[in-house]
Amino acid sequence: MKSVALSRMLLSGLLLLAFPAASAKPGATALLPEVLGAAEFYAADPLSGLALHGRDPVTYQLEGAPAAGGREHEAVWAGLGWRFATAANRAAFLRSPEVFAPQIGGYDAAAAAEGRLVEADPDIFLVRAGRLYLFRTRAARTRFEADPGEAARAESNWSRLQKVLVRG
Fold it and tell me: What are the boundaries of the signal sequence (predicted)?
């Protein structure tokens, strides 16, 4: 887990260099406070530093499937770069990021329900009760979907799992 924390710190520094003005935009969150102890953490693509590997978080709910975001519609929120398919989706996200951002920080929700922190595949997802959940495998998604208590267990474990990210 130490490599996860170190990667987050290095990634946040790179994002600060890549998006210096973005964190000053209204509705965006500064990067550095996220590294030093944020209330919420989000998984990032280790190569690009983007949330959801560059997919538009709004399209999961509005279109029922993820769509690629574009460089022309980027924003920084919660210490990560987020991409959107349209300017309207970017604006909707920045107005209400808690509605569109994935639950459990974009990590595998089924693993979180078991008390584990596992990276997820942004193409394997479920929208339940207006919330986006991601999974590493289709089998994990199927188990999560079949058990209505999984979401509550994942949410309950998430605060403890975030501390693992901070401590490394």
Answer: 1-24
Q: Give dist(CA 137, CA 116) in Å, integer.
A: 14
Same domain, 1 and 44: yes
Residue 61 near residue 100, CB atoms below 8 Å? yes
Owner of token pair 């008390």: 115
Same domain as 110, residue 89 = no
The closest of 44, 11, 37 to 167, measured between CA atoms, is 37
β-strand pairing of 121-128 with 131-135: antiparallel
Round to whole Å and give the CA distance between 160 and 78: 18
pLDDT tens per residue across span 57-114:
999 999 999 999 999 999 999 889 999 999 999 999 999 999 999 999 999 999 999 9
pLDDT of residue 26: 32
Q: Are residues 125 and 68 in the same domain?
A: no
Global pTM reads 0.76
Please identify which residue in the block is written with the tokens 């920080």. 105
Tell me, yes or no, whether 85 and 29 share the same domain. Answer: yes
Which residue among 78, 97, 116 closes a domain?
97
For residue 152, the one-letter residue type is: A
Structural domain for 8, as ranges: 1-97
**C-alpha torsion sign, points 44, 38, 132, 145:** positive
